[in-house]
Structures are given as structure tokens and as C-alpha cells.
């Protein structure tokens, strides 16, 4: 057992160091398209009971440096029980670019977000499609950055999402997202994207149609990973963006149950579509558990695991902060809490086995 832990965390440590170096020296950027050549685009917004968020989301899109006359904004109202429909109607009456779409429940057998997106895409007009969740707000250059990647020849783009910081718990999630995106960016630039941010992504509709779209996935609550893999299997180009100015912000999960549920969805996606990668990810994310076990075996092994958890988190946080010119740095307590949260999420996923999306549970 001692040798097993030494080998596992020794290899993980070397892999993480290699990814840090890759992140720094193989960092891919895309040229920003000139204002004269900006194409017409469709922005897809999924909304279910978003009366507290939707207005901020739409205002941030409309205030971006992308010409409003070149964007079509489709807002899918997914059977909301609050004032979301009225907010959509108000924006649609004020801005000709905004259109509300009433979503049919589980049309064509699709569930969750895939059902919403499928119906929005059916009504879209343009080749370049950008997806954003209604609880997000975007930076002024976000749209131009996403579209520039599509214009450069990429068929699917995963955007740069940050957590809006307001307190200690929000800052914890901000740093966690930063370190996760560090790994996603490193792997994407080194080989190809291993995951995608469903709340902030874009694609070329020509490629989307060729792979069969969300209809081809069938009922799934991990539609983002599923569609990414279809693009990749068909040979289409994909990229993970991390840009200083072209980002979108999501609100933090401030309730413990919501935080665990979010992590359950992430883990469900990993083990559904990346089972082989899920095994090393298990040791990487749940290192605190194995650290606690190793305390009863060997203090040297415990030190190796502790060093892995703290040092690699700090390195990824630091390099991400430098590249994005953002503030904040991860310290000792944050990696420990994040690992414990992941442990609880895995236990919940194992014993409850249901994933909730917008108040709906899917097996």
C-alpha cells in the first residue's frame, strides 16, 4: 500500500508539473477579429426561473463591444414559474435582436439543458452560435473573443468562465475554477480539450448539424461533454480559451446543498464520458482522503500526498493568475476544503445517484 501511494502521487506530481510547464510555454491564443469583419451570430440563452439573473445577463450581452445589429439573441424559457417570461417579453419589445422562445418539455425525448438548446438552435438564423447561461454576465469583449476563435477555424469553443467573488466561499470557488481551467487549458493546448464549459461555449452550426446535434445524443444531462466528443470523433477542431478580457462570470453557489449538487453533476460527466481519466482524477481531487489514510501507514507518504495537494494547487493558481492578470492566490486551507467537498459530492452521487438540474432530477 505504501509503494502504491508513492507511485500514484509521484506520477501525478510529475504530470501536474508537466502540465504547468505546458500551460506556460504552449499557451494558445486566437487573433481577435477586426471590427470590420465581425460576422452575424446567434446567442443562445437558457433560462428557467431566472428572474433574479436574466436582466443582468441580457444587459451585459447588449452592452458588449459586438454590434447589436449583428447579433440574434434567443432566450429559451424552460417552463419558468417566476417572472422570467415577462422579463424576456420586456427585452424583446425593446430590442429587435432579442426573441423569446417557449420551450416544450422533453421534446423529441431530450431532457435538461439539451432539450432547451435543441429547440433554440432549431430557430436560430446564423452559422456561428454562442451559448451562455442566464445566471451569467459577460465582459465587454467576451463575444468578440468567442467568435474570433470560430472565425479562426475552430468548430467548437469552450470559453473562460470565472466565479464572481463576493465573500470567502465565493473566493474559494473562484480559485477552484481557476485551477480546474488551468488543467483544461493545458490538456487542450497539449493534445485536445478533455472537457468543455457548458455555461460558456460556442460552435459552428455546420459542424453541429453534421454530427447529429443534441438529438444524436439522446436523453442526457451531460450534453456539453457529449457534444464535444461527437465533434472530436468527427475530426472537427476544438479549443479551450483562457483570455484576460474575453471572460464570462457566473455567480457562486452560496448554499452548501447547491455546491454539492453542482459537483455531483461535474463528477457524473467525468465518469460518464471520461471513465479512464476519471480514475487518476479521483486520486487527484480526493487527495485529502488518501492523505488521512496514509497517516496510519507512513509519515513520509503522508508528506508526499500533502505536498502534492498543496504545491500543485498553488502552482496552477499562480500561473493562471499571471496569465489572466487576475488577483488572488490559493493558500493552504482552500485545497483541503475543495478536496473534502469533492469527497462529499462523490459519496452523495454514489448513494443518492440522482443529478438535479434547475430543480429537476434525472437518473
TrEMBL record:
The chain crosses the membrane at residues 6-25, 286-309, 329-351. Residues 42-179 form the Glycosyltransferase 2-like domain. Keywords: Glycosyltransferase, Membrane, Transferase, Transmembrane, Transmembrane helix. One of its GO terms (molecular function) is glycosyltransferase activity. Pfam families: Glycos_transf_2. This is Glycosyltransferase 2-like domain-containing protein. It comes from Roseivirga misakiensis. It comes from the Bacteria. Gene3D superfamilies: Spore Coat Polysaccharide Biosynthesis Protein SpsA, Chain A. The lineage of its organism: Bacteria, Pseudomonadati, Bacteroidota, Cytophagia, Cytophagales. Belongs to the glycosyltransferase 2 family.
